[in-house]
């Protein structure tokens, strides 16, 4: 794997690892400096052939100019040679013929050089464009996949929060309904009890609660005989024993 492919993989991993932007399903948060570092390294690792092609394209005018200068030099030399033999007709004819051939050859050679230079420059340009386009497609793929992943994750989070919110709202409505059902019932029972006590007090002409309080006060004032105290203590002991037996029976049933 070349270093360029490794850099593309690193850019893909970096973009996939970026967090989605808040309140957006189509944007991510990118560290600008880190992304620029990866792109700078990718630019530095561009194959030497592309740089050489760019250099040739930049020097295209110089190549054509050199070819034309060479052709002009050959024409000038031929012309000078023909002028030296101008006195003799036959020599002049041969000189002109030679000069014409040289000129035609020079023009043909110059045209070939220019055509070859143009063809090479076009091939290099197309190669550079094709390579750049493939890089753009790869980066576009990486960004599209990262965007799809971020969008899927955001939709899943929103759906989960919506479900939780619906559950909470449903539970709250159920509790409010239960509270509303119980509060009116309790409010209706309290006035009924007060009305009954008032009615009984009015019918008897005195408060039974007050009489019970007076009876308790009188009982407390009277001395309790010793025999009665012993009977009360025995009854309390028997009740405690019965409670203990009852508790043991309960434990047996539980086991």
Helix content: over 70%
DSSP strand count:
0
Distance, first to last CA? 73 Å
Low-confidence stretches: 199-207, 216-229, 245-255
Structural Rg = 55 Å
Beta-strand percentage range: under 5%
Number of helices: 7
Organism: Coprococcus catus GD/7
Keywords: Coiled coil
Coiled coil: 57-127
Biased composition (Acidic residues): 191-200, 232-255
Explain what this protein looks like in three dimensions.
It comes from Coprococcus catus GD/7. Keywords: Coiled coil. Residues 57-127 form a coiled coil. This protein is mainly alpha-helical. It has 2 domains: 3-154; 226-255. The protein is built from 7 helices and no strands. It has helices at 3-17, 32-44, 48-58, 60-84, 89-204, 208-221, 226-254. Helix 1 packs antiparallel against helix 2 (32-44).
Topology:
Blueprint: H1 3-17, H2 32-44, H3 48-58, H4 60-84, H5 89-204, H6 208-221, H7 226-254
Helix pairs in contact: 1-2, 1-5, 3-5, 4-5
């Amino acid at each position: 794997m070349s270093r360029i492919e490794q850099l593309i993989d690193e850019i893909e991993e970096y973009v996939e690892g970026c967090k989605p932007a808040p309140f957006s399903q189509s944007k991510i948060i990118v560290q600008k400096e880190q992304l620029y570092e990866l792109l700078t390294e990718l630019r530095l690792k561009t194959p030497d052939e592309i740089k050489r092609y760019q250099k040739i394209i930049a020097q295209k005018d110089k190549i054509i100019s050199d070819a034309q200068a060479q052709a002009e030099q050959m024409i000038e030399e031929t012309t000078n040679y023909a002028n030296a033999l101008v006195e003799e007709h036959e020599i002049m004819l041969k000189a002109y013929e030679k000069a014409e051939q040289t000129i035609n050859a020079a023009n043909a050679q110059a045209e070939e050089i220019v055509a070859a230079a143009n063809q090479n420059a076009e091939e290099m340009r197309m190669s550079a464009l094709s390579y750049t386009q493939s890089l753009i497609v790869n980066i576009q793929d990486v960004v599209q996949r990262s965007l799809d992943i971020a969008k899927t994750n955001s939709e899943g989070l929103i759906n989960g929060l919506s479900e939780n919110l619906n559950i909470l709202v449903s539970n709250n409505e159920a509790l409010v309904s239960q509270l509303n059902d119980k509060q009116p019932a309790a409010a209706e029972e309290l006035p009924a009890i007060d009305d009954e006590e008032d009615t009984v007090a009015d019918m008897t002409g005195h408060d039974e609660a007050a009489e019970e309080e007076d009876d308790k006060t009188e009982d407390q004032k009277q001395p309790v005989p010793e025999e009665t105290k012993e009977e009360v203590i025995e009854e309390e002991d028997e009740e405690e024993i019965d409670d203990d037996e009852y508790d043991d029976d309960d434990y047996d049933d539980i086991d």
